[in-house]
UniProtKB/TrEMBL annotation:
Coiled coil: none annotated. This is Patatin-like phospholipase family protein. Keywords: Hydrolase, Lipid degradation, Lipid metabolism. It comes from the Bacteria.
Amino acid sequence: MKSDKKIGIAFSGGGVRGIAHLGVLKALNENGIFPTQVSGSSAGAIVGAMYCSGYDPEEIMDIIVKTNYFKFMRPAISWTGILKMGSVLQLYEMYLPVNNFSSLKTPLIVAATDIKRGKVAYFSEGNLIEPIMASSCIPGMFDPIEIEGNFYVDGGVLNNLPVEPHEGVCDVVIGVNCNHLPVEHNIKNIKNLIERTIIMSMNYNVYSRKSKCDFFIEPKGLAKYGVFDIKKAREIFDAGYQYATEFINSHQELKDLGQSTVKL
C-alpha cells in the first residue's frame, strides 16, 4: 500500500486489552489506512511486531488465543520477579523466525524502560525479540530483560504511548489507547482499588501525549477487562473494531486519508 502521506501509529500497553489494537487495525485497514511505521509499548509492541511482520489482525488474534501466550511463562527463582519471560522466547521464535527488525515489512519502534538509567529506550534495529520481551516485562512480576549489559522493564512505566518516534518523520500520527477507564461509583474491594489506581497512572502517562496525536482512538470501557483475561479476547477485539469504525466514519479527515491510499 502507498499513501501520499506518511502515517505513524502508536499503540499503548494494557495486557490482554491490547487485543483491541487488532480490532482498530482491522477497521483502519478496511478503510484503506495503513501505517508507514508503527510504535508500541508492552502489548502494543507485541501487536506491532506481529502486524509489521506481515500477519493481518485476524491472524494475530487467532495466534494469541490458540497459543495462550501466558502459558509459556514459568516461575522465576530470583528476588527480582515472580515469573521469567525466557520461556516465551520459543513462542516468538515460532511466529517471528527472523529475529531482526530488518525482517519486518513495516518499520517498528519498540519502547522499553531502562531500569538503571531511569529513562525510555527505543529499539528499531538489531535483534527484535529481546526488545519486545523487555517492553512487555511488567516490573515485579517478571525478571528484567538484559540487553547488551543493560536491564529493561515494561515500556509503559515511562511511556505508554510512544508517539515521539513519529514526530518529524510522519505527516499524520494516530495514537491508540486500550485502557479507557469508565466512571466507577462503587469500588468493591482492595483488588479493584489497586487495578483502578494503576490504570489511572497509565492513562495519565498516555494523556500527556494525546496532544501529539492528530487522531486519538480510545475504545470505551476496556479497563473493565483484566490484564490476563484471555477468555474475553474476541469481545475485546470486537470492541476495538466497532469503536474504530465509528471513529473513522465520524472523522472525515481520517476517512479522506484512507481514500488517498492506493494499492501498489
